[in-house]
Design goal:
With 217 residues, the protein is α+β, with helices and mostly antiparallel strands. 33% of the residues lie in helices and 25% in strands. The protein is built from nine helices and 13 strands. Helix 3 crosses helix 4.
Length: 217
C-alpha cells in the first residue's frame, strides 16, 4: 500500500507537536480525504475487468505481483474492488481465521447449525428443480412431477457456524482485477483526480497549505 499513499497529494498541516518553534510550523502529511473510486461506467464495463480468485494467504501485493508483475500495483487491486478496510474486506489467512473463530466461538458453538440451505436437485430429465445455496427453513420441501406422480423432496443441508464462517471468508477470495491493458489509463485518471485546483491554499498540483485555526486576528 505504500505506493498508494505516494499517489496521494500532500498537505502542509499546522504542527501540533510540542517541539514546534512557532505557530507557523507545519507538518507535511498525505491528504487521506482525497479518496478515489472507480468510475461507474468502468464498473459496468465487461471488458475492463477479469475475475480472479485469491489463493492461500496471498496479500494484495502478492496478487499484484502475480497479475501485473509488480507489487506496487496493490492499491489498484484494492481500488478495483472498493476495498477500504483490508482487515474486514480481504480474506483472512488460515492462522488469522483460526484465531478469529477461537475468540468468537466455543467448540460447541462452532458445530451448531447456523442455517439450512438448498442443494442442487434435478428430476429424471435433468431439469433443475432447486438450485444450490439458497437459505431456507429446516422444513423446506419442494414438489415435482415424476412421471404422472407428484413427488415431494427436501433438498437441503445444514450449515454449521464453522462452515458459515469459512464460506464467508472464502467468498472474499473472488475479486475483480483491472485488465493489464487498462491499468495505465486508471493510474493516469487517479493522478488527474487527485491533483489540486488553484485556491487560496494552493501551493502546487500536489501540495496545499492549510490555515492554522489556532491563530486569531
Amino acid at each position: 500500500m505504500s505506493n498508494y499513499f505516494r499517489q496521494l497529494p500532500n498537505l502542509d498541516y499546522p504542527s501540533l507537536l510540542n517541539d514546534r518553534s512557532s505557530s507557523g510550523d507545519t507538518v507535511r502529511v498525505k491528504n487521506l480525504f482525497r479518496r478515489v473510486k472507480i468510475r461507474e461506467d468502468y464498473l459496468n464495463s465487461l471488458v475492463l475487468f477479469t475475475k480472479y480468485k485469491i489463493e492461500g494467504d496471498d496479500r494484495p501485493d502478492n496478487v499484484a505481483e502475480k497479475y501485473y508483475g509488480s507489487p506496487d500495483f496493490d492499491w489498484v487491486v484494492l481500488l478495483a474492488n472498493n476495498i477500504i478496510d483490508i482487515k474486514n474486506d480481504w480474506p483472512m489467512t488460515e492462522y488469522d481465521l483460526n484465531v478469529y473463530l477461537n475468540e468468537k466461538y466455543t467448540e460447541q458453538q462452532l458445530v451448531k447449525i447456523h442455517h439450512y440451505e438448498t442443494i442442487e436437485f434435478r428430476d429424471l430429465n435433468n431439469q433443475l428443480i432447486t438450485p444450490a445455496g439458497k437459505i431456507v427453513d429446516e422444513s423446506f420441501t419442494v414438489e415435482y412431477l415424476k412421471g404422472s406422480q407428484i413427488q415431494r423432496v427436501s433438498p437441503t443441508r445444514s450449515v454449521s457456524f464453522f462452515e458459515w464462517e469459512v464460506q464467508k471468508n472464502d467468498d472474499k477470495r473472488n475479486i475483480n482485477l483491472i485488465q493489464t491493458d487498462y491499468v495505465g489509463t486508471v493510474v493516469e485518471e487517479f493522478q488527474e483526480i487527485t491533483r489540486y485546483d488553484r485556491s487560496s491554499q494552493y501551493v502546487n498540483e500536489r501540495l496545499k497549505r492549510t490555515e492554522n485555526i489556532r491563530i486569531t486576528g
